[in-house]
Amino acid sequence: DTMPPVFRGTDDKGNPIGTNVTFWKAVKAGAKDKAGKPLWYKKGIQYWDGVDATDDGVLGGYGHVSSLDARENSEFLWDVMEEHLQEAMDCEEKLVSLDCGAGIGRVTGSFLIDHFDECDLVEPVAHFIGKAEETLGGESKRPDGHRCVNFFAEPLESFTPEPGRYDAVWIQWCVGHLTDEDFVAFFRRCAEGLKPGGMVFMKENNAKDGFVLDTDDSSLTRSHKYFMHLFEDQLGWEVVKHRLQKDFPKELFGVRMYALQPK
To answer: Which end of the chain has the lower number of beta carbons within 10 A, N or C?
Structure first.
């Protein structure tokens, strides 16, 4: 049995903050709320509670990348799942997606709803999911009849998807808030939510190496190697495909899409 890899971290000012092992141990041992949950989570929610429920707000002033984001998401989804999606359409079976850390419903509204008959959204920040329901809820106004069905106001670290409901679970720009332990447990629960042939997708910033702590919003940007360790070593899943997003502003972290097959 080989020792698991160790990743070294820095904070957003470039100061070294130790390894992933010591970092998460400290979070676990650190301050807690009344329910015994690490304050790590509360700090994240408090940060987003103060952010405007707009594309620019949720994308930190980069609202203009939203259409590029949606376009490459669509290409990636079809590259990976074409057979499954096509078969469902040919048999007139309902395709269902779950958008995790859905914010104001940007990813669902600009991308998922074009490909899935029913879309569910889960998001812990109350005014974000409220805005999502306001803009995307109710009867479908689309010619294709696609609609958003469920708006779950719940944190990912406790959310459990309905078993066997989803063709695709899409997790974008939110897992930086999850501890490694909660990340692994959450992805396992997502796998339970899949139909046969369904897949889990994640799109996330990649640190160059190790990890970078964002001290403002209490989140961690993990490197590609760190994610691969979580997917392959911790979860024991297959990474079917991964791809870097093209054409994003150069000053941002690299952004990578992952298609995952639970085992």
So the answer is: N
